[in-house]
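All the exercises in this workshop are built on plain-text protein records. An example says more than a description, so a record of this kind follows:
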Amino acid sequence: MADGARQHHWTLTSSLMALQAEINRDRRRRRKPFRPDDFNPYVVNRPIPAKASVEQAAKLLRAKYYPKEINCGKAEVEN
């Protein structure tokens, strides 16, 4: 319970710190605005996953990839 209260207090404090930093930010030197998460020690920064296609992932893993043709709702004609 004490940990939850501590996290709540840090959330409020980091919001005030971000506001103060944003007011004094030089927009030519730092284009990216400050966020409360920049000042909160309890926030876990997770890396943003890179967008890649299946072909790129297979090439990276040195795996064989055989693309399957997708039938876009068209009925196959059998003879």
About this structure: Residues 2-44 form one domain. The chain has a mean pLDDT of 86.
